[in-house]
Amino acid sequence: MWLSTQRYTDGRPRACGQSTPCTDAWGTWRYRRCFWRRSKQGVYMISRIFFVVALVSILAPAVGPQELPGVAVMDFESIGGDPHLGPGVAENLRTALLQTGQFRVIERSALQKVLEEQKLQVTGLISPESAVKLGKLVGARLIVVGSVVKFANTYTLNVRFIDAETGVAIRAEKVQAGFEAEIPEMVDKVVEMIMGIYEPKPVPSPPPIPPIPDVVILAQQQAETDVNKLMWFGAGCLLGVFGVLGAYIWEPSPPTVALMGKPPEYISVYIREYKKKAKSLQAKYALYGCITWSVIYLLSMSAAAP
Question: b or e along 163-174 (b: 16 or more beta carbons within 10 Å of the residue's beta carbon)?
Answer without folding.
Answer: bbeebeeeeeee
